[in-house]
Amino acid sequence: EAGVVQSPRYKIIEKKQPVAFWCNPISGHNTLYWYRQNLGQGPELLIRYENEEAVDDSQLPKDRFSAERLKGVDSTLKIQPAELGDSAVYLCASSSGGTLYNEQFFGPGTRLTVL
Amino acid sequence: AQSVAQPEDQVNVAEGNPLTVKCTYSVSGNPYLFWYVQYPNRGLQFLLKYITGDNLVKGSYGFEAEFNKSQTSFHLKKPSALVSDSALYFCATRGGGSYIPTFGRGTSLIVHP
Predict the structure, then answer these.
(1) A19-46 pLDDT, tens per residue?
(2) Which chain B residues have a beta carbon less than 8 Å from that of A106?
């Protein structure tokens, strides 16, 4: 079974530039999560999707961040414009079902460096 | 609001010795508790979870965790550590009706040969 796929793995951009991250979850997983992980910290949820519907997006900085999950499968997270403080690892995860006790399967992450 | 605390930034143990990585939680209602492991340049990998029932939960790679409701703890344990267990370990929780997972800041486990 293929795991969660993310691309790119690494991205270096200048501040004020746009950037996009892509995630392909495990087949059949209808719940998809985007997290930001700062150095030395645990992941922090940005947004959760149930199929194509965005739920739990209260921690997404909507002035510069946007996300979409067309057709309830792949997802894209965008930052425009990027700021220095956005440097972090962006993790995508998926799980089967929207229950409280389902474990998540994580992708390898995208390490973003904003110069 | 729910929270998770991992009081140790780093745990050092000799290979072959037992290991414990500590986690305490604060959740209203029944907690759902998870342990994940992160190897360098990799995503988090699920180890085990507590939902209900037996307080001792067994997981992958010989790890287990003990749920203690009175102490609000969910410590990760392994009877005999391996050098390959060296990694970053995260405790996480969900509960109180919130689907938002809350992660601890992680504990770096270093197993010395």
Answers:
(1) 999 999 999 999 999 999 999 899 999 9
(2) 36, 43-45
Query: How are beta strands B56-58 and B64-68 bridged, if at all?
Result: antiparallel
Asked if B77 and B62 touch (Cβ cutoff 8 Å), the reply is no
Residue among B90, B101, B105 minimizing CB distance to A45 = B101
Q: Could you give the CA distance from residue A55 to residue A37 in angstroms, rounded to a whole number? A: 20
pLDDT computed for residue A1 by the predictor: 63
Tens-digit pLDDT profile for residues B6-55: 999 999 999 999 999 999 999 888 889 999 999 987 889 999 999 988 89
Phi and psi at residue A3, to the nearest 5°: -90, -170
Structure tokens at B82: 């391996």
Inter-CA distances, B21 with B7, B9, B75, Å: 9, 10, 6
**Phi, psi for A11 (deg, rounded to 5):** -150, 130
CA B34 to chain centre: 6
Among A74, A97, A91, which Cα is nearest to A36's? A91
